[in-house]
Write a structure and sequence with these properties.
D-amino Acid Aminotransferase, Chain A, domain 2; binds N-(5'-phosphopyridoxyl)-D-alanine
Length: about 290
C-alpha cells in the first residue's frame, strides 16, 4: 500500500482524507504538478516548483505552509514507496471553508490543502510505445482561456482522451481558430527537415517544463527551433511529429487524423531528442 502525504502527515493511502467541502472537490479550485522520477531521482524539480508558484500567484492562492519543504517531501515519498521510475503527483487547493460558497474564503482562516502521492511506473523510460509512436486525432479546443495555469479542471482533456480511444487512437491534439494549441496533457510539435516547430508560449497553452528543456537541448544539438502556431494540415504534411510531458518525456507521433507521417514509424529527430532528453535529465536529476 502506498504512503501518501496530506497536510503534513505521511499516511497509508486508505487513511488519507480531505474534506468534502474542499474547493478542489467542489469548484476545481486547485492546481497541480506532476514530476517524473528516474533512477529514484526527481526530473526537472526546480522547474515544476517554479511553475507551481506561478500557478498559485495567478489564482491568488496562498502557498501551502510546507512550500519550502517540497523537495524533502518528494524525496521522502520516493524513499517510502521505493519509486525507481514513475511520477509524483502534487495538488494544492484553496482548502475547505466548511461550506460551499463561490467567494474565496479568507486566507487568514482557511489554509490551502496540500496532497502528494506517488505513481510507480517501471519501464517509463524504456517505454515500448516510444518505438511504435502515437496515433492522434484532432478535436476542437473548448477549454477556458488560462491554460497557462495548471489547474485541476481536467474534464475536457479527459473527454478528449476518450474521443481518441473511441477512434482507435492514443490521444487528441486540440485546435483553436484553425491552429493546434497542444495535446490533451502534453505539448505538440512537428518536424520539417531539421526544423522543430511548436506553438509559442501564451495563455493558450501550458508552459511545459519538458518543453523548455527539450527546446534547450534541441538548440544545443544544432537543431533549428521555430516557436509558432501550425495547422493540422501542415502537421499532416510534416516529416515527423511528437509530444512532450513529464510522464511521456518525448513521445513520437506517427499518425494524425488517419494520415501517416513519413513512413508511419517514429522519426529520427523525435527519437534522438528522446534519447538526449533522457540522458541529460538523468544527469541533472536530484
Ligand atoms: N500534463 N500541456 C498540458 C495541457 C498538460 O497537461 C501537460 C502536462 C503539458 C506538459 O507539461 P510538462 O512538460 O510540464 O509535464 C502540456 C501532466 C503530465 C498531466 O496532467 O499528467
Amino acid at each position: 500500500m502506498r504512503t501518501v502525504y496530506v497536510n503534513g502527515d505521511y499516511l497509508p493511502e486508505t487513511e488519507a482524507k480531505v474534506s468534502i467541502f474542499d474547493r478542489s472537490f467542489l469548484m476545481a479550485d486547485g492546481v497541480y504538478e506532476v514530476t517524473s522520477v528516474l533512477d529514484g531521482k526527481l526530473i526537472d524539480f526546480d522547474g515544476h516548483v517554479a511553475r507551481l508558484e506561478r500557478s498559485l500567484n495567478e489564482l491568488d492562492m496562498e502557498k501551502p505552509e510546507a512550500f519550502d519543504d517540497l523537495l524533502d517531501i518528494h524525496r521522502k515519498l520516493v524513499a517510502l514507496n521505493n519509486i525507481e521510475e514513475g511520477m509524483i503527483y502534487l495538488q494544492v487547493s484553496r482548502g475547505s471553508a466548511g461550506d460551499r460558497d463561490f467567494v474565496f474564503p479568507d486566507p487568514e482562516v482557511t489554509k490551502p490543502t496540500l496532497v502528494l502521492f506517488t505513481q510507480s511506473k517501471p519501464g517509463l523510460a524504456d517505454n515500448p510505445t516510444a518505438r511504435k509512436g502515437l496515433k492522434v486525432i484532432s478535436i476542437e479546443d473548448i477549454r477556458w482561456g488560462r491554460r497557462d495555469i495548471k489547474t485541476v479542471q481536467l474534464l475536457y482533456p479527459s473527454m478528449g482522451k476518450m474521443m481518441a480511444k473511441k477512434a482507435g487512437c492514443d490521444d487528441a491534439w486540440l485546435v483553436e481558430d484553425g491552429f493546434v494549441t497542444e495535446g490533451t496533457s502534453n505539448n505538440a510539435y512537428i518536424v520539417k527537415g531539421n526544423k522543430i516547430i511548436t506553438r509559442q508560449l501564451s495563455n493558450d497553452i501550458l508552459h511545459g517544463i519538458t518543453r523548455a528543456a527539450v527546446l534547450r537541448f534541441a538548440q544545443e544539438a544544432q537543431m533549428e527551433v521555430e516557436e509558432r502556431s501550425f495547422t493540422i494540415d501542415e502537421a499532416k504534411e510534416a516529416d515527423e511529429a511528437f509530444i512532450t510531458s513529464a510522464s511521456t518525456f518525448v513521445m513520437p507521433v506517427v499518425e494524425i487524423d488517419g494520415a501517416a507521417l513519413g513512413d508511419g514509424t517514429p522519426g529520427s529527430v523525435s527519437t534522438r531528442l528522446r534519447e538526449i532528453y533522457l540522458d541529460e535529465s538523468r544527469k541533472a536529476a536530484i
